[in-house]
Design brief:
207 residues, mainly alpha, two-stranded antiparallel sheet, 2 strands
Amino acid sequence: MTEFQERVERSRALSEWIRECHPGSLKSKDSVLEVTLFSIALDHREAILLLLQAGARTSAFALARSLYEAFVRGAWAQHCATSEDRDRAYSTGVMPGLDKMVRDLGKVGGEFFRASKDAMYGPLSDYAHTGMRQVVRWTGAEGIAPRHSDIETIELIDCVDVYAVLASMCLAKACGHDIAPYVSKVGTVTDEHKKWKAAREQPSHPK
């Protein structure tokens, strides 16, 4: 089994953990918007795993932005949205733009969202809209075909796994459940990624 296949299997195991820990019921109807958004984020992650298993790496990378946006919107609904904001979203079919949500989250201590958007949103958008990051991974001396490397695809898996646990944690919080297991799981997933990165940086590690 390759390193990539091992990472997919580990991610599938995380999916099972998330399903087993799913709260199953809402605490309040006021939580419907955020729970829906976090659930959509989790659904996108499952789709990304299926695409990767099918060999459709281009589409998996393209879907990552949708996962990220669903998570940010869910966090905004959970921490910032008023009852009027929720009602307006349902009555008009429109929510505030992502930049406004990130600014609102920053006002309630969510500096993480600004940092993550600054670092990730440009590349994610490029993949989502078939920008040059996608194009250059389809062209080479051998002809036109997808060439997303195992290493960058493992990076994608690790990233969406972290967001999946975060979304699950926020969903559990919205339903009035204990979030301690999720906090621990976020630490485990991020620590595993750091160890993998560190191992790859060792001179003796095959690149």
